């Protein structure tokens, strides 16, 4: 992917998504060397690490390093630049995210998706493709169109099939997609045998 610069004003975490995190910053440090740009040996690698500033009670401020933050916060920090670059890309680009909802509250996952869609312009040719186990993201009226939802169904032999929601016949316009899915109308429901835990 070609590097595209962005600045804090265009990627404002404190206003776009409320994570109660305050702000984050990079600071020169002697951690792991990361080379940016010139890989010919002539460039000077710049070493950086990320610290997060939090504001507690009575305006008390404290900092946390990257490894001290929650997985959800770290995931958002990693995803936001990718989503921003994809949404602003004038060329053909596909961003694949496996288990977008992992470590994220449903509302945060929705905010990421909606933020990507809102950032896209009429010149955007990028696509966001993600997998999820969060059924609350199957909202055809609020977030996604029906033709944007695909269901993975696994056969008894372990073979997976990807089926677009419009391929299922008999779906009413006002049908509750989540309810129908949980009832097994579209497949994709895990086949679980009953089990007990030994004492």
UniProtKB/TrEMBL annotation:
InterPro entries the UniProt entry points to: ATPase_AAA_core, P-loop_NTPase
Pfam families, per database record: AAA_21 (PF13304)
SUPFAM superfamilies reported for this sequence: P-loop containing nucleoside triphosphate hydrolases
Domain ATPase AAA-type core: 18-139
Transmembrane intervals: none
Gene Ontology MF term list: ATP binding; ATP hydrolysis activity
Protein's name according to its UniProt entry: ATPase AAA-type core domain-containing protein
Species of origin: Corynebacterium matruchotii ATCC 14266
């Amino acid at each position: 992917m070609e590097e595209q610069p962005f600045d804090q004003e265009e990627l404002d975490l404190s206003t776009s998504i409320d994570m109660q995190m305050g702000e984050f910053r990079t600071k020169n440090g002697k951690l792991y060397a990361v080379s940016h740009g010139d890989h010919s040996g002539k460039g000077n690698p710049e070493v950086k690490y990320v610290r997060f500033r939090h504001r507690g009670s009575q305006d008390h401020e404290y900092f946390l390093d990257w490894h001290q933050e929650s997985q959800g916060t770290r995931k958002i920090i990693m995803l936001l630049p990718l989503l921003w670059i994809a949404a602003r890309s004038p060329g053909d680009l596909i961003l694949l995210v496996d288990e977008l909802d992992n470590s994220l509250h449903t509302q945060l996952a929705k905010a990421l998706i909606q933020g990507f869609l809102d950032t896209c312009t009429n010149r955007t040719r990028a696509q966001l493709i993600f997998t999820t186990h969060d059924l609350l993201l199957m909202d055809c009226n609020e977030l996604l169109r029906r033709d944007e939802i695909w269901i993975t169904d696994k056969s008894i032999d372990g073979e997976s099939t990807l089926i677009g929601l419009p391929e299922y016949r008999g779906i009413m316009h006002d049908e509750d997609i989540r309810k129908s899915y949980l009832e097994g109308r579209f497949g994709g429901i895990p086949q679980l045998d009953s089990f007990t835990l030994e004492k």
